[in-house]
Amino acid sequence: MATAAVLENQIRTIDPDEERAFMDAIDRWLEREVIPVIQHHDHNDLWPEKLVEQMAEMGLFGATIGQEYGGLGLPATTYAKIVMRISSYWMAITGIFNSHLIMAAAVERFGTPEQKMKWLPKFATGEIRGGLALTEPNAGTDLQAIRTVAKRDGDDYVLNGTKTWISNALNGQCFAMLAKTDPGADPRYKGMSLFIADKRDGLTTGKKFEKLGYKAIDSAELVMEDYRIPADQLIGGIEGQGFFQATGGLELGRINVAARGVGLAEGSLRLATEYAQQRETMGKPIAQHQAIQLKLGEMATRARAARLLTLDASEAYDSGERCDMEAGMAKYFASEAAVENSQEAMRVFGGYSYSKEYDIERFYRDSMLMCIGEGTNEMQRMIIAKQHLKANPV
User: Fold this and answer.
1) 48-57 pLDDT per residue, tens
2) What sign for the dihedral angle of Cα 48, 124, 29, 14?
3) I need a labelling partner for 334 at 20 to 30 A (CA). Which of 191, 311, 321, 328 fits?
């Protein structure tokens, strides 16, 4: 799927006509291939192998990877719109390429020229897929508390530790792995390094987690026992840079989560709007009852505001500006909008919302993850406040 995206001074743009054509292709794919199989895969928690192959063919695994490495080089604004559109029908499958692209971004932004040429073309085609391996059983938002250790041994590093809640753990082949190369460093972040960790002896997959929502994408443990990888798979080639390399991708990661939240909020609104015009009580569609109109009005406004905040953060990212505050605002508001809109849609559907025949119950199950993943919303509010105070000293 071609695109006119270009890199100019590290700022990516796309021709509006090309963007519309891309979005039209996404819509056709959703209608023909995705929507008919959502319930089957979600209810049975089945990996959507055929859809993954189609996503690779469309170039989604290389969506934000530069064209010089075989990717589409899409700007964050276009990528966010793609994630919004897909998530408005099925959020879970966006996680299959979202996590992968954050891994790819770490290599593209911080990797050596040799690492970029070796790994990015294979990431772009989806030949090698994977994700981000940061979280551990005792370390989530506080990344400096990780316990995975990487020790230099000649021309290799040997890693030992456990990662948890890793997206694509079962079906992925490679991960951006955060480990401590200097456990005694003070401050702690100076002793952390990020590795390109491909599956080989010593790296095994632990149990797959049974989840409330976010079905069909695998979330599982990664266990390293004397896991040996070449030293040239240390991203950037210099120890101690891992914390900033990992957190440097969180701006795009939070924009991704915000876009998923927008999709869930807009999808919930769409379902509620359709149902409210079909369901009748007291001789008229419930959409004509004031109580339902109040809900729909709030939902429409909330979804629109979430979209605009997310596009605002995406535009800041595309311009090369630091946008941790904007990305945090978008992630916080859009994820809460997803939860609130799905809850209100459940009320619009009434008793039928509890039936698995209706899609709204999936939106309700999936939405809460957005408030927890990629940094909790409590943490987002703290980041927003600190950045706001820093910009407005007295």
Assistant:
1) 999 999 999 9
2) positive
3) 321
- Residue 322 has φ and ψ, to the nearest 5°, of -70, 130
Query: Cα angle at 219 between 125 and 369, to 5 degrees?
Result: 105
Token reading at 239:
């120890």
In CATH, the architecture of 249-391 is Up-down Bundle (1.20)
Six token digits for residue 214: 């976010």
Q: Which CATH class is domain 131-246?
A: mainly beta
- Extract the tokens encoding 332: 């916080």
- Residue 87: closest CA among 369, 380, 374: 369
Alpha-carbon separation of residue 212 from 95, 146, 215, 253 (angstroms): 16, 26, 8, 22
What DSSP assignment string belongs to 229-298? EEGGGBGGG-TT-HHHHHHHTHHHHHHHHHHHHHHHHHHHHHHHHHHHHH-EETTEEGGGSHHHHHHHHH
SS3 call for 303: helix
Superfamily of domain 6-129: Acyl-CoA dehydrogenase/oxidase, N-terminal domain (1.10.540.10)
pLDDT at 221: 96
Distance of CA 247 to the CA centre of its chain: 14
Q: State residue 10's pLDDT score.
A: 56
Helix (H) or strand (E) holding 164: strand 156-167
Q: Of residues 221, 239, 326, 374, which has the active-site annotation?
A: 374
Per-domain residue ranges of the chain: 6-129, 131-246, 249-391
Mean pLDDT, rounded, for 185-202: 95
**Does the active-site annotation cover 225?**
no
104-119 confidence digits (pLDDT tens)? 999 999 999 999 999 9
224 bridge partner residues: 161, 203
Determine if the pTM surpasses 0.90: yes
